Amino acid sequence: MQIIFSDIDGTLLNKDHQVTPATARSIKLCVDKGLYFVPVSARMPEAIRPIIDNIGISSPIIAYNGALIQAQDGTVVDSKTIAMPEVLSVCHTVENLGQDLAWNIYSYSDWYSSHQGHDLVHNEEVVVDLESQVADLEQLASLKEAHKVLVMCPPNRTDQVLQALKQGYPDLSIAKSAAHLIEVMAAGIDKGQAVKTLADYYRVPITETLAFGDNYNDLEMLETVGYGVLMGNAPKALQNRIGKVTLDHNHDGIAKVLQEEIL
């Protein structure tokens, strides 16, 4: 194996949003052997880098589920964005759907939110240990593009909002990523295509890659790489489909596989 890809939340991080010491140690040993370790996440780059820094390595990153790919030296390998007029239109639609919703716009390393006081925005800030920049849509009109719009909803309204956005914007990729979250991105973005793009960039055969994931948005990645492994906390239906399952994210599932397959 030459590249190890890993989802972050529910995979690399445990329930306390930490990388366990055993997992960090195993990853560092693999990197010391010359392998690349690549986090793959819906998170923005600034919410990924501190995790890598805490492990004690440098690495390429795949952010926004593949909409932004950066090499180890920070070079942008690939960037797929939504033009700002369409981003603003999506956010206006969200505002018209109710004051209990919040929009968030992500562009490269910047995160703009409709209001920090919203409970769901605050919760996201706590999870990723970052603060959003409060802005109104007029202020953001000068931006050229964005990688993602994240819509936050009360869970009992998410499906209704999802349907409205899908009907209004059929050319965008729109999906529910949690009970209270809807992600809006350019069409054709998935983790499977992203890992192939980065492997090609480093001239590594896809058969020489390994990936860890825990949920349905990891499926394309797990089926693209040479060796895909699900965490023990993944849904049972997904475990049955992938077949290769390790321990859960609270019990060093990544470390177990790395010790058995690489170290």
UniProtKB/TrEMBL annotation:
<protein>
    <submittedName>
        <fullName>Hydrolase, haloacid dehalogenase-like family protein</fullName>
    </submittedName>
</protein>
<dbReference type="InterPro" id="IPR000150">
    <property type="entry name" value="Cof"/>
</dbReference>
<dbReference type="InterPro" id="IPR036412">
    <property type="entry name" value="HAD-like_sf"/>
</dbReference>
<dbReference type="GO" id="GO:0005829">
    <property type="term" value="C:cytosol"/>
</dbReference>
<dbReference type="GO" id="GO:0016791">
    <property type="term" value="F:phosphatase activity"/>
</dbReference>
<dbReference type="Pfam" id="PF08282">
    <property type="entry name" value="Hydrolase_3"/>
</dbReference>
<dbReference type="InterPro" id="IPR023214">
    <property type="entry name" value="HAD_sf"/>
</dbReference>
<dbReference type="InterPro" id="IPR006379">
    <property type="entry name" value="HAD-SF_hydro_IIB"/>
</dbReference>
<dbReference type="GO" id="GO:0000287">
    <property type="term" value="F:magnesium ion binding"/>
</dbReference>
